Amino acid sequence: MAMLLREALGEGLRRARTEQGRTLREVSTDARVSLGYLSEVERGQKEASSELLAAICDALDVEIADLLLDAGNAMRPIDSLASTTVVIPAPTADRRDATALAAA
Amino acid sequence: MAMLLREALGEGLRRARTEQGRTLREVSTDARVSLGYLSEVERGQKEASSELLAAICDALDVEIADLLLDAGNAMRPIDSLASTTVVIPAPTADRRDATALAAA
User: Which one is predicted more confidently, A78 or A75?
Assistant: First the structure.
């Protein structure tokens, strides 16, 4: 089964929070949502309403546009990458590097 | 008030449907959702669950990643555009073209 939007959004929110070294409690307080709700949203178990998603992004100081971009990339099917992604090779990349990138 | 996610997603879904010249009835039948539900989702009045959003995108043959990208762009604050958007000018663009693009 393909990744669901709430799972991709939850992963992005959790990544943003942990990168900032903040706890669920801190962010849930700032966003005025319950700790349990935020935890379920991060694990992709609950749909965040648009209003609460905006509040959580605000508490994390994350642009929702960037969260959506990340979520979209996480959800993009592998077989569509060739036709939708522009790859700009590094000037110094040799063939072995390119192969490693393609397999990543 | 800033645009909400459900409003941005609804606009994108409606644009995809109308560009294909399809009716609410056709797409709702293909996505196995009610016509009223699809209409409310398109108008940003109802949150689509992740599962139903996936079904609607499938019925429209639209990648959810592309829908999210469009929604993110629609929601991005104007004052963040300068620092987050990479603009690649067309080789033949003159200054008048560039001004028209900037105003679009």
Answer: A75
